[in-house]
Specification:
This protein has 15 helices and 12 strands. By secondary structure, the chain is an alpha/beta fold. It has a 6-stranded parallel β-sheet, with helices on both faces. It has a 4-stranded parallel β-sheet with strand order 3-4-5-6, sandwiched between helices. The protein has a two-stranded parallel ribbon with strand order 1-2. Helix 9 crosses helix 13. The chain is globular, with a radius of gyration of 21 Å. About 45% of the residues are buried.
């Protein structure tokens, strides 16, 4: 479910399970079929590649409120198809479901058949807390606000989510002889057996009001590095001068010309080199200065350790790779979990945030110059890189899933 930031961790987890002797199938959009099969994993299709491209080009996808509504409606439309794919491929007594946090079909299937299921959260935002509340767009979750006020906001948000989702969920549950559910994303969507947070405890400290069956296992940090080498053009650029700044607005972002225009302007103002990363050439400036190049895709794990700074949208995969590389980061959050992720990076002392409305070349240059010239930022970045790199999150996640399998 989602973009490369959602699929990469699942492919990495699938490859790790396969290496431990398990058979693995991944349900995803056909846009990712080649990626899944490149690791020797079985691919099961959900939707069409055209639907993925249409979604990626939707003008409201990155809007802070309309974007999540688009995703929720998509989840509702694909619910029955996903349930059918699951039902056709489960082997009773053998299969476990490792479900994306927005995979409501697996949750229904577990309720109907008892198939072991784990809910997987890539970022802390999906785990509600009234102790250390996640930061979210259009919601006031500051720690100085009383818990009752934060609860009221969640209750109102649940009303919207139920309006978009609960009808389809409960219609399917009724057909299956299951009772209806309310406040879908309050507690129900968590697996009652195992909730996995694929981030370290120092990034998202476990809270006393999280589900008691929650385990955090660290950033998965899988990004196709085993299959993709640096292109000759990127390698030559890296060797030809000082460490560049890296700019990436999100793998599914197709409308970020403003982002790349600001990136080029900031590089020129600072006299720094830059690499613009996007699979979509249309929003890259047609003429780039000699000190800036465009690349469609470069694994972050190979590129970021060679970078001077990293400017991105705040997706959890980008945040984790930036931390592992020990590189200062600028986060420009637009929607979803990005504001919370950026806030956590800032608290760790490795990043600053620049809102979308202020994301201009001049402002970006000023924030970058301050960040890159602050010794404590580099010290903290190196500290958290040392905490991130030696941790084998994929193996730990596999072990937790195997424990669940044995216990059931």
């Amino acid at each position: 479910m989602g973009s490369y930031g959602d699929v990469h961790p699942k492919v990495g987890l699938g490859a790790a399970h396969k290496s431990r002797g398990h058979a693995v199938a991944i349900i995803s959009n056909p846009h990712f079929q080649k990626l899944v099969e490149s690791m020797g994993l079985e691919f099961l299709a959900l939707g069409t590649a055209d639907e993925y491209h249409q979604l990626a080009h939707h003008l409201d996808l990155w809007h802070s409120s309309r974007g999540p509504q688009i995703i929720m409606r998509l989840m509702a439309r694909t619910l029955r198809e996903l349930y059918t794919v699951i039902d056709a491929n489960v082997r009773p007594g053998e299969t476990m479901l490792a479900a994306h946090c927005l995979d409501f079909a697996s949750r229904i299937y577990h309720d109907k058949h008892g198939t072991p299921m784990a809910s997987i959260h890539f970022a802390p935002m999906g785990l509600r807390s009234f102790h250390q509340s996640p930061q979210m767009f259009r919601m006031l979750m500051q720690p100085w606000l009383p818990p009752w006020f934060r609860r009221l906001q969640y209750w109102l948000a649940d009303k919207v989510v139920d309006y978009l989702l609960a009808g389809e969920i409960n219609a399917l549950r009724k057909e299956l002889g299951l009772p209806g559910v309310r406040r879908v994303m309050h507690e129900w969507y968590f697996s009652p057996q195992l909730v996995l947070g694929l981030f370290p405890a120092w990034f998202g400290p476990p809270q006393p009001d999280w589900p008691p069956n929650t385990r955090v296992t660290g950033f998965p940090l899988w990004d196709e590095a085993v299959n993709v080498e640096l292109s000759p053009a990127v390698s030559e650029f890296l060797q030809a001068g000082t460490a560049p700044l890296v700019f990436a607005p999100g793998s599914a972002n197709t409308d970020a010309q403003w982002f790349f225009d600001a990136a080029v302007a900031a590089c020129q103002k600072l006299g720094r080199r830059g690499i613009l990363l996007s699979r979509y050439r249309d929003h890259i400036p047609k003429v780039l200065p000699a000190e800036v190049i465009h690349a469609e895709f470069v694994p972050f794990s190979k590129l970021l350790p060679l970078a001077a700074g990293f400017v991105h949208h705040g997706g959890i995969g980008s945040c984790g790779q930036g931390l592992a590389a020990g590189v200062p980061q600028i986060v420009m959050p637009m929607a979803y979990d990005q504001l919370d992720n950026g806030s956590r990076l800032k608290r760790l002392g490795v990043a600053d945030m620049l809102p979308r409305k202020k994301f201009t070349g001049a402002n970006l240059a000023a924030v970058l110059e301050k960040l890159l010239s602050t010794p404590s930022v580099h010290e903290r970045a190196h500290h958290w890189a040392a905490e991130t790199k030696p941790h084998d999150s994929l193996t730990e996640t596999c072990v937790e899933l195997e424990k669940l399998s044995i216990s059931t």
